Amino acid sequence: MKHFHDRIAPPKVTSTQTLWRNFSERLIGIVVFVIGLALITSFALRIGYVKQQVETLVSADRDQGLWTATQIQVELLEFEKLTHVAKSSPDTFENEVRTDFDILYSRLSQVLEPNIAIVFYEEGVSSIPTEIIDIRDQMAAIIDLNDNLNVQELEKLASFASNANHLWKSSIGLVLQENREYKVLVRQQMVETLKSVQSQLWMAVAISAALQLLVILILILRVKYQKARNHNLKDSLTGCASRAGLQYALKNSFNRTKSGFSVAVVDVNNLKMVNDKFGHKAGDLVIQSVGSALNKVSRGIDCTARIGGDEFVLLLDASVEQSELILERAREHLEKLSNTENFKKLEMQISFGVAYCPQPSQFNDAMSLADERMYRQKNAERKNKHSVIRLPPDNNIVGV
User: How far apart are CA 257 and CA 359, in angstroms?
Assistant: First the structure.
């Protein structure tokens, strides 16, 4: 059965094939990720542009500026009235005057904010009189420097508030006249921006749908490929690995072992006699039982493969001595199984040989040696049916 060996060894593959077989799922994921990242970046840039346009329009929205301007005028009038009333009883109204001035100060400070100040600009020239800010600061000085406000100080505050109110009325007159035309312009710009966003959104929906369909198609094809490959990697009779499954294990699981592994060749004894005497169904039952026994004693990344009619190959993540003990357990299990009622007429025996393999590239040499040991054991068992032959290591053992 040595003619199987060259057909079992891993075929030579190119670096491109190795990369695809080992990293195909990652490559597909990376491609999809890059495409998705490109789309997201494109949409993000577009959204950023639209956001900038909207913020520009919102910041220049005169409704907000005019509302603030109106509030400032109201606060100036209210503060002027309060200071006149407070002159009759300064101590009683002092706290109320200070609180109202804090509100007025905050309102007047808002005219310096960009989204408010832009309302009062016409051809680059501000219509806000600088005296307004000066008056605010003078009133703040009166409030802050005097612990108790008297009638004279309240008179000054009322006078400042009256002057500020007159200045403020004159500064917002031009803005009120141009408000209608500006609103029309803003609405036109908003409509154009929204149309642009709508076309971008439809494009995004179409690309996203196409990308999702592509990913689904790739996944479906991948699942079908995995099913076909898994079917090819298994032996239909025993459930063990097939020759392709053995090659797959050599190229993947056992290609990463650093301390080497053991290769075992197992052969079913007297299978031809069982087929001739009891029929091929009985022979298949024996092969299935041997495959089941070998699978039971396998551990971890171990691989049990059926490579011929009655020949099995095992890749064992263990030393030669440990592997021989593992196969002895399989032999004992089969002997016990032969004595059960269902198998009382079938005598199931196996012969095996084990050799050490430092790396997958030396698999052929290790398997040849394991095959030789298996035949030596088989011949010895024919001479003494009930003896178990333990062969000493040869000088030409691979890696031993």
Answer: 8
Q: Which residues pair with 316 in a beta bridge?
A: 262
In the three-class reduction of DSSP (H, G, I as helix; E, B as strand; rest coil), residue 72 is classed as helix
pLDDT in tens, 249-262: 888 888 777 788 99
Task: Tell which residue, 167, 165, 168, 143, has the closest CA to residue 154.
Answer: 143
Q: Where are the beta strands (DSSP E) in the chain?
A: 121-122, 125-126, 261-268, 303-306, 311-316, 350-357
The helix/strand/coil state of 393 is coil
Other C-beta atoms lying within 10 Å of the C-beta of residue 201: 13
Domain segments of the chain: what residues?
Answer: 1-233, 238-383
CATH class of the domain comprising 238-383: alpha beta
Tell me the pLDDT tens digit for each residue of 128-178: 667 888 888 898 998 888 888 888 888 998 898 888 888 877 776 555 555
Alpha-carbon separation of residue 233 from 100, 230, 267, 363 (angstroms): 86, 5, 21, 19
Written as six digits, the tokens of 160 are 């400042």
